[in-house]
Every structure is written in structure tokens, then in C-alpha cells.
Amino acid sequence: MPDRDRPSFTLQLSQNKYLAPSDDRMDVVVTVRAGDVGAAAAGPPQTAELLLVDCSSSMDWPPTKIEAARHACRVAVDCLRDGVLFGVVECTGRARLVYPPGPELAVAGARTRQEAKRAVSGLIAGGGTAMSTWLDLARDLFAGTPAAIRHAVLLTDGKNESDRMGALDAALGRCRGEFACDARGIGDDWEPRDLQRIASVLRGGADAVLEDAELAVDFRRLVEQAMGRTVPDLRLRLTTMPYSRLRFVKQVFPTEVELTAQVRAREGRVLELPTGAWGDELREYHLCLDVVAAELTRYEDRLLGTVALFEGADDEVGEPQAVVGYLTDDLALSGVPDDDVARVTGQAELGRAVRAGWDAFERDDRTEAAREWGTAFRLATELGNGEILKRLGRLMDVREDGVVAIKDGVRPRDGFSLVLGSTISTHRPPEPTESGGAPRECVHCGHKARPAAKRCGHCGEPFEAGAPS
User: Fold this and answer.
1) How far apart are CA 440 and CA 418, in angstroms?
2) What's the pTM?
């Protein structure tokens, strides 16, 4: 296939390579970009889509919830591309495929879309909530298809009270890697942590429906986004050295997802992380290595590991990147964090403050909630995270003197939206500054800093733009 007909992939790495003798870790931000993923001459791969709709008895009150779910499903079915395999599942204390009637998924076309919409219009509310059964049925249905891209949208309005203890975690273990799932909560009486667990393990997003009428637009966006992902899987491959090993890896953009448990060991010191299906998009990963600094030679670059990107059977795509360590006694070099690493660690602290504030709010400790959300407001402002600021603004006001005041009449769904939104992060486009080269020397105090530093880590004075090292 000519290069112009192939997707393009780029792999970039950001780190401060300088290590003090007392350091025991190296933090790296890995950026992966995929483009032109719809350019393959063979066309998009087979896609399968499931709509998992909570039909428990609580969906009947207010009646706008079940009607919003029916309408959202009809809209989602209408936007399915011809040829996509699909089905609609009624979810209560058990799961039941309501369309198509048989055990195999339907093929999207004019006739099947009309039939599916008629079946969806007959959904009624009644029964309990057992999410493990919903996910297990989805796994079984996907397993019966040849689809390379498998995606589900899960909607619920209640707590997972009909499941036995541990059933949801067990189901998530069985479903991990089998399909992707985006989860949505509607109303004011569901558990955001359940949805967060589902989305995290199944490589999707979780969020709250603030207004019932907005659900249809959200369903359409999620289904269209899934159909736009035509690369079934990309894998990050990490090779470590005898003096380095993986401590953790997490996705940090567009949302934060812990991924260490999903890393697979290969031969030797090689590890591999499946990253799921891709469209034209960018994702960032925070990679942390344990390093035995005593085994490094001072004042020279040492290879700590390599990161490569693979697609398909075993095709390497993009340029592999080296993780480098440089042992030095100069704290001005080792003490200044890389800008991208500082950004993702700041985002992690922002998420912690958001969730701690909600925990305090739930136990009616408004003073502690205001303190934590004040911290979150400051961090979100510094990071330029407008989405978190918007969600915080539904729950609190910041007065001119900086005092945080929690609003009266906060709806639970607004709090759920903030908690689930705490994983939404920001991305800073890479600057044209070279990360390699000689250290920069400060004209004010003579101390040295890493090549890409904007400010001296010793005296704090800024480096002049374009000034020589």
C-alpha cells in the first residue's frame, strides 16, 4: 500500500534526563498522534456497536428519563454507518437483547435501523440493577462477531444494588481488552465510582447527563466517535535496562486512566501496553521508571529504556524513542522538572483535590470541601483546564478576596459531573525547542539548567528567548 494510503503515527517523548545521585525514578511523558486513519484503501474494519440501556424501575421517575433513553437510542441507531453490526440491550437485574431478536447482532441498513427504532420505543422501566450481567452479555455478543472495533455505550440511573458482592469487578476482569465502553449516568441517584471503574478498565469515558434532553446529542457523538476509530489497536512497547524497571504507566490525556495492570510481559525485559482502537487523535501517557542511580556513570548519557509503537501483527510505526538518564551532582540540572511532566503531575493533584472535595461535601463537611475545591480552582486555573473550571463553577463561587463559597441547592448530578470530570486533562502543544544539546548557563548566577529550561532553577531568573546556551 502506498504511504499516502496509510495512517500516520508519531511518537514523541518529553523528560528531564538529569538525575541526582539520590534520585530513584525517571518520569517521562509519551505523546502518540494518529492521523489519516481513514485513508486505508481497504476501507474501515468491521465495527460492532451495542447500546446498553438501564430499564430498572427507577428509570420510570420522572418519566422523562426513560423517554430520553428511548430517544437517544433512536438517534444513535440512525447515525450507524451501513454495515456496522449493532444491537440494543435491555438492562435490569439481568440483561436481555431486545434487538435483534436472535443471538447474532444485526447489520445496519435502512430496514434494520427502522426495526431497531421500533423495538427501542417499546422499552419499559421495571426491575433491578446488576451491571455485571450487562457487561457479560455484551462480551458474549461481541465474541460472536468478526468485528475488530467493538464499542458499547452504557446508560444507568441507579446504584448497582442487584449485583452480588464483587460481581462487577469480576465481570470487568472478563471484559478487559474485549471491547471499549463509554458510561453515562442520568438523574441524581447513581454511583459515579461505578461508572469510573467501568470506563477506566474498558478504555472509555464516564460522565453525568446534566439535562435529560442532552442525552441524544451525547449518544450520537459517542457512536460517531467509535465509528471514526478505524485502527483496531496500537501497542506501546517498552524495553528496560538491567538498572531500570517500570513503576507505573497511565494515560494522562485526554483523560487520566491507570494502565499499569494492563501491561503485558514479553520476552526478556520487554513490556507491551495495548492502547485500544484509534481514530485521528492524540493521547499522552505518563511513564515512570524505577532507576538504580548507583549503576549509572556520572556525566554521560545512559540509556534507561526505549519506547516504540506497534500496529497490527507486529508492524513498528513511528520512530522509536530513547529514555535517557544523565547522572550529575548539579542540582540546578536535576532539580527542575520537565514542563510536560510537571503539567501531568499537576493534573493528578487537581483530580485528587476535586475528589477529596466531593468526599467532604458528601459527609457534609463544607469547610473541607471549600478548601479542597479552592485548591482545585487554583490548579485548574494554572493548568488552563477550562472544563474543570466550568464544572467547579456549578458548585461554588470564588469571591474577589479569594474565599470559596459553596452554592446552595447543589444537584447531585452536578457533583457527579465534577467527580467524573476530574480525569479530564489538558494538552500543551510541543514547542520547537530542542530537548537535546548542551545545558543552558544562567548569566545572573552562573548555574546550569537543562537545554529546554525557561527559568534558572537556582536564582529563578528567566532565560532570554533565543539566547545561546
Assistant:
1) 41
2) 0.88
Q: State CA 101 to chain mean position distance.
A: 34
The grid coordinates listed for 164 are 452480588
Alpha-carbon distance 79 to 224, whole Å? Answer: 7
Residue numbers in the chain where pLDDT is lower than 70 = 1-5, 38-43, 428-441, 445-469
Neighbour tally for 316: CB within 10 Å: 12
**447: its cell numbers:** 548555574
- Segments of 210-269 assigned E as strands: 234-240, 244-253, 257-258, 264-265
Phi–psi pair at 83, nearest 5 degrees: 95, -15
Q: Domains in the chain, ordered, with CATH? A: 3-41+231-336 (2.60.40.3670), 47-227 (3.40.50.410), 341-421 (1.20.120.1690)
- State which amino acid sits at residue 220: R
Tens digits of residue pLDDT in 69-89: 999 999 999 999 999 999 999
Number of other CB atoms surrounding residue 279 within 10 Å: 17
